[in-house]
Amino acid sequence: MMRIVQITAEFSPIAKAGGLGEMVLGLSRELTAVGQTVEIFLPKYDFLDLSKIQKLKMDVPDFKIPIHEHLYANAMWSAECEDCQLHLLETRHPAGYLQRNKIYGYEDDVPRFLYFSLAMLEYLKLQNKPIDVLHLHDWHFALVAILARDHFKLPISTIVLTIHSAEYQGRCATWDFDAIGFKGADYLFKNKLQDDDPAYPETLNLLKGAIIYADAITTVSPSYAQEILTKQTEFHLGTTLRKNKKKLTPILNGIDQKFWDPSKDFYITAHYDAESSLKTIKQAKQASKNLLAAQFSLKGNLPWVGAITRLVPQKGPKLIEEALKETIRLGGTFILLGSSPMTEIQEHFEQLKIEYADHPQVLLYLDYNESLAHQIYAALDFLIVPSLFEPCGLTQLIAMRYGTVPIVRSTGGLKDTVFDCNDFRVPIQQRNGFVFSEASSDSLKSVFQKAFAIFHKEKPLFDSLIRHDMNVNSSWKTPAKEYLRLYTTARDSFQLKTSKIKLPMPF
Ligand code: ADP
Predict the structure, then answer these.
(1) 46 alpha carbon to ligand 1 midpoint, in Å?
(2) Does ligand 1 lie within 6 Å of residue 172's CB atom?
């Protein structure tokens, strides 16, 4: 049995911005179920819904961080959530790092997470308890990987980094390090952490640092691992990643089967599962459609197509708009549940919302809404995911479990999980959706025309896609086993290394 410590900016459902939070939940719950000790450390953001947490108690009421001449106070809480052991880091920094209404998207995100990281390092030092695996995610707690061994001498056997997206890297300046007390130590960082992008010669890069300092690195699908090693979507991390290629293992994400379960889902009205008859599945989907139609004055023309997504360039917002127009043109109903951290994109969709306000075939719900997401997955016939790049993508996996057929662009994890109904290279049972290659309006239109034609005129084929989708096994069981194997190998090689160091001289 191992002590596995996850330090994360997100944990679903209480602090979720996207796939990262769901991955930490799904993986931790599965590892806990097979007897591992998993402790999850998360900032105690003000917006946390404490009603979803049990046994909340303060463990360490006050531990201080010295920065320059000041001592900053912090506390550590423990709690249980979704069968997982949580630790919540409360910081009392005067900049109010926890007093926000979302996880990221603030100008001071880098100083916030540098400070959270420093507080975590101080706490782990205070605890001084051996850690078999320290698992970090993306750039947010990269500083922990960078400082854990050399500076803080923490008893950690192995450090694992998961790259959920290479796009966000935590770029910062030496003064960000000064601000957390590392004045004068920039020589230490600069050599290794200097950004690889020639456009930012004076910039330091936290994700790059974590890649260098981690013992093992994972990313969330095999195709994305290939893409970030080549020029495709490496965002100037390719050189560093290629140098560290031996450490990189792709492990395809799963989805949490308890959280996404059409047979028990708290938010939906009619339940069904992979064993249900097609008649039952379709009736249940119709019941979900009826509820949404009544709530949002939709006419209900079939098929229903939708997208549930952050509206950022990665997700192909232009193609999502194109999908809306093509759906109406072909006579279906379109639902978008999504919001954007980028003002320009949000305003553009707000404008579209006004244009389509009275349209009986369109619903644009431009906010984050967990319960509505569940209802929409259950109601849709097709889910469109036209991403320009996609590390893994969870929405297509969730859609499949709810018997909703995905239409995706062939990239990253989408390429590894969705196989076109006409792809003769793939066994028939694996064909589960519609795939297009070019990120262009023409490609999208032609795949929509094919999907609509099959929906209306080739019912047995469409029904077989629903069946294949609902039979896809995307539980966390297999990926959790792969993580355990990776953890064990990394820990054992660390133990071997340290035992070699301790060997007496041969004379
Ligand atoms: P990413 O992590 O890049 O945002 P993923 O596909 O990995 O994309 O994960 C997205 C997760 O966020 C899914 O669980 C999806 O249902 C959820 N989600 C995205 N947008 C919304 C929204 N507006 N409301 C509710 N859930 C959303």
Answers:
(1) 21
(2) no
